[in-house]
Amino acid sequence: MVAEGPIEKQADVVIIGGGIAGCASAYYLAKRGAKVVLVEKGRIAWEQSSRNWGFARQQGRHPLEIPLMLECNKLWVNLERELNADLEWVQGGNLRLAPDEREQARLEEIVKAERDLGLDIKLLSKNEVQELVPTMRGPWVGGMYTPSDGHAEPIKVTTAFARAAQEHGAKVYPYCAAERVLMAGGRAIGVMTPRGEVKAPVVLCAAGAWSSKVSHTVGLDLPQRSVRGTVAATTAQTPTAKVGVWGGKVAFRQKKDGTFYIAGAGAADYDITLESFRHLRMFLPNYRKNWRLLRLHIGMELLRDVGRAMPWSPARKHPFAHAVDLEPKPNLKKVQSSRQALRELFPHFTDLGIQRSWAGYIDATPDAVPVLGPVPRLQGFIFATGFSGHGFGMGPIVGKLMAELVLDGKTSLDISGLRYTRFAEGKLAEAREVI
Ligand SMILES: Cc1cc2nc3c(=O)[nH]c(=O)nc-3n(C[C@H](O)[C@H](O)[C@H](O)COP(=O)(O)OP(=O)(O)OC[C@H]3O[C@@H](n4cnc5c(N)ncnc54)[C@H](O)[C@@H]3O)c2cc1C
Fold first, then answer.
1. Whose CA is nearest to atom 12 of ligand 1?
2. 264 within ligand 1 shell (Cβ under 6 A)
3. Average pLDDT, stretch 198-214?
4. pLDDT digits (tens, 9 = 90+) for 96-134
5. Ligand 1 centroid – CA 188 distance (Å)
6. Quick check: 144 and 99 in contact, CB under 8 A?
7. Which residues neighbour 239 within 8 Å (Cβ) at sequence distance 6 or greater?
8. Given CA atoms 111, 114, 115, 119 in this order, what sign does their dihedral have?
């Protein structure tokens, strides 16, 4: 997937970041004839876009995201054909379990609101849940279900977008960090990389958990924090469920090979770094409200960050090129508790083992919805970032909308509520999820 020869010096669009947002944007732009260069500091899809659960769900989303997800679902159902690749797409629906009547009542409200927005969502009784997953046992009283939702294998989807973009002429450069965004006359004009400059009238920042640092190189202040999420793959079990499930104690989906991806509910792991202090004020209301749901870790990550900031550190000079192939530590207690929770739901899984576990840093904004679109005071600079733990499912439509924004100057769906300037205006979306 490495572009051969010297780096392309000129493009219509330069994309920073080879996750799903960057690769899908590269694909839809290149497909429409744009000359695209994508630079990635490490391997394509090494960060969030290969480490997530793989849910492509419309349900339980912020109202600002639902119209985007309704369109995105139409892309998902044809994506394997569109990209000519096996993505392990399964349209098995998405189910959120209610552990008690209080939660069932809350889900009922969500169902009403999301149905009004056009989603095929239902409230299920205990018996209806049982019919959907006959072998599942547990104390749940019902749930919320969207039959048209699905799941797919994240790394396959992201690399398929990158490959298809290249087939349409996009140049993709792994291990080629954008060290800074270039500016002239008050506008973004390209990026500087270790392989030289790439000039382009449009710079798309899709740098995931690094977008705040990238945009800082041109004086933009993007409030963002990173939360460590843990996932595990179990040993293969008999075919049990096509539906992706968020239980009270465990979220899971069963892959076509019989293994389950599982993740635990409960407090999120939050590693304090120097970046944590930068936007503290913006995140404080969220911390105060959800302090029970955040587990703060002051340790190695902070020390490493301080080390990188020292004047003699090469990482200070090349912060992005020095942050490749990162392998955050999974929370092994969570792995065991989610395995246990899956066993409780399926007591007949007597030989349920863990094959592997991993973690990834989720990039979250203060209101847990993304930042999409241009930055008025920096012409030529566009954000597609801040997906706050649910950007995999949204990746295809984000790519399509970014192509429209660049090539048509407007998008077919309203993304104004996700604008960058909402932070400075103090008009944050009402946060729905805790990340
Ligand atoms: C454990 C976990 C579970 C999740 N589960 C789900 C789920 O089930 N469903 C869902 O929809 N979402 C889920 N998510 C969220 C989802 O994975 C992300 O929202 C999505 O992948 C974000 O894609 P991205 O392209 O914005 O970022 P990333 O995939 O993080 O990609 C950003 C890329 O930019 C590169 N980069 C950064 N700085 C530079 C630079 N200066 N120069 C060049 N390249 C740079 C990085 O190396 C990285 O590869 C989960 C996330 C995690 C971690």
1. 390
2. no
3. 97
4. 999 999 999 999 999 999 999 999 999 999 999 999 999
5. 23
6. no
7. 254, 258
8. negative
CA distance 382 to 14: 10
> Ligand 1, closest atom to CA 21?
25
Q: Is the pLDDT of residue 3 over 80?
A: no
Distances (CA, A) of 381 to 113, 203, 220, 327, 377: 34, 5, 10, 30, 9
8 Å CB contact between 233 and 283: no
- The response to whether residue 207 sits with its C-beta less than 6 Å from ligand 1 reads yes
- Pairing relation of β-strands 94-98 and 142-146? antiparallel
CB of 19 within 6 A of ligand 1: the answer is yes
Helices 395-408 & 20-31, crossing angle to 10 degrees? 50
Q: How far does the centroid of ligand 1 lie from the alpha carbon of residue 78, in Å? A: 22
Task: Indicate the average pLDDT of the chain.
Answer: 94
Residues 6+ apart with CB under 8 A from 166: 1, 3, 30, 172
The pLDDT of residue 287: 79
Is beta strand 371-374 parallel, antiparallel or unpaired with respect to 381-385?
antiparallel
The SS3 of residue 202 is: strand
CA of 402 to the centre of ligand 1 (A): 17
Q: How far is the CA of 394 from the centre of ligand 1 (A)?
A: 11
Domain ranges of the chain: 13-93+148-425, 94-147
CB of 246 sitting under 6 A from ligand 1: no
Residue nearest to atom 19 of ligand 1 (CA): 391
- Cα–Cα distance between 279 and 308 in angstroms, integer? 19
Best of 1, 39, 46, 49 for a ligand 1 pocket test (most atoms within 8 Å of beta carbon): 49
Nearest partner of 256 among 348, 150, 134, judged by Cα = 150
Give the architecture (CATH level 2) of 13-93+148-425.
Answer: 3-Layer(bba) Sandwich (3.50)
Using alpha carbons, list the distances in angstroms from residue 216 to 31, 132, 180, 364. Answer: 31, 48, 9, 16
Q: From CA 387, how far away is CA 304, in angstroms rounded?
A: 25
Taking the CA of residue 22 as reference, the ligand 1 atom at the shortest distance is 25
